[in-house]
Amino acid sequence: MIIVFAVDAQAQQKLNTFYIVDSISKKPIRSASVTLMRAKLSMSTESDGIFIIPGDLKLLNDSVIIYSQGYSLYKTLLNKMDGLDSIKLVIQHIKQEPIELIGKNEIALNPFKVNNIDRFTGINTVNTPFEYLQLAQQFYLQKVSAQLVKVKIRRLAFSGIDYSRIISYKGIDYAQYRLRFYAADSLKAGPGKEICSEIVEISDRDNRQINVDLEKYHIIVPGKSFFVAIEWIKDFVNQGFSNAFDRKSNSIKQSVNFRPAIGILDTQGDKSNIWSLNLKRQWKPFTFYAPYFTDLAITAIVMQE
Questions:
Q1: Strand, coil or helix: 232
Q2: Above 70 in pLDDT, residue 235?
Q3: Cα separation values, 89 from 85, 107, 174, Å
Q4: CA distance 226 to 147
Q5: CA 38: distance to chain centroid?
Q6: Mind listing the pLDDT tens digit for each residue in 142-162?
Q7: pLDDT of residue 3
Q8: DSSP output for 55-109
């Protein structure tokens, strides 16, 4: 499947096709995030690694950021991409913390009950588009050094109707996304360096609560704080729609959303433990729901002495 950006309505005769590939193997990179800054558009590549921008690139005043986990970020102006046909991303090696015997005490951080979650984030509204690449939940330890062995996530399970059948049926929408893991940045207080070098991708159709066993990844938390993040894969597989009533036009408006929608806890406090990665790839505190909903429905289970 090819992703196409509609950025120039007056000059769509020309189609500029780009292949995002590994600089060494030359193989296409799936789920690379492609963001047009001024247009505020972001999509993810499919397995073919292709995306298309229509129009005369020399006349388009925008910049593009291309990123995929495990690779260095690629940023350039659109007019400098004129004449290119491939974008080669360079592997970025992540230094893993040495694996040590952490202990046998299992600790659940930010626990929740599935049936108590009735609010979700990650969905566009009429007046507030969801323009983020990742959301991260911050966790705190009583003492330094632990191994992250499991996470539990509550997502919104949409119900749908299959009109192609004589008998309609309801089911849970398929969702595909990635988990990212970060140590706390000592200067900025938000997510810092990654603490897992492997891709952890979730493909889920059947559950409201997702239990992910992470023990095989040997994720070591070096300090007393860390983050677990949801990274949206913005492709056609995860694309859905939501309807909301617009009071200005007195009508129902439909907007594009990308699954999953993540639960938020009914917690309150002066500090939000949710951080967001915006289209500029900057981490900022996510205070949209503060001070009433300060945590995502993500539980982290660690092993510690």
A1: strand
A2: yes
A3: 13, 38, 29
A4: 11
A5: 20
A6: 998 899 999 999 998 764 434
A7: 53
A8: S-GGG---EEEEE-TTB--EEEEGGGGTT--EEEEPB-PPPPPPP----SEEEEE
Residue with tokens 């309505």, as numbered in its chain? 9
Q: What SS3 state is found at 128?
A: coil
A 10 A CB-CB count for 233 gives 22
Residue range 206-224: mean pLDDT, rounded? 90
Q: Which residues pair with 148 in a beta bridge?
A: 219, 302
CB-facing half-sphere around the CA of 147: CA atoms within 13 A: 18
Question: Which tokens belong to 202?
Answer: 């979730």
State pLDDT tens for residues 194-214: 999 899 999 877 678 899 999
Tell me if residue 215 falls in helix, strand or coil.
helix
d(CA 190, CA 295): 14
In terms of C-beta density within 10 A (0-12 exposed, 13-18 middle, 19 or more buried), how is residue 155 classed? buried
Amino acid letter at 290? A
Q: Average pLDDT for residues 60-75, to the nearest whole number?
A: 95
**Helices assigned H by DSSP within the chain:** none
Please determine, for residue 253, whether its predicted confidence score (pLDDT) is greater than 90: no
Distance of CA 204 to the CA centre of its chain: 15
Residue corresponding to tokens 């205070």: 287
Q: Which residues contact 95 (CB under 8 A, 6 or more apart)?
A: none
The answer to whether residues 180 and 231 touch, using CB atoms and an 8 Å cutoff, is yes
